[in-house]
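JOB MANIFEST
job_type = single_chain_structure
chain_count = 1
residues = 126
[input]
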Amino acid sequence: MNFKKIAIAISLGFSVSCMVDASAASDEVFTWTCGEGKVFKTSGTTENVRLVWESKTYELERQNSLPGSLRYKNTSSGHDLVVLGNKAMLFNIRTSTRLADFCQTADMKSGKPPHLFAGVEPFVQN
């Protein structure tokens, strides 16, 4: 095998492994436990979050938000997820209801910032 073929094979192998690693990271599921015994799950990336709420799945897209927060919405279903440094809240903007409040992942309960903040923006606690 000549040098060009070896370089192409290595390059293709590296590209495929990077794609697999990126998709595996977005497939990680995070369970959020909330006040009043409510629970939801999220997976996806910092730009697009898959929300599982009451056995139904919704795709939420990242929206502009205030510094120190992240916001994800699905305008069709009305689901609106707001993530702060110490909690998240789930709303339905179509019905003007708060579905879940004071939601945290296991990491957040131990004092870590939300996983969605990783590499997105710094969160400074007051």
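[summary]
The radius of gyration is 18 Å.
Helices lie at 3-26, 106-109.
exit_status = 0
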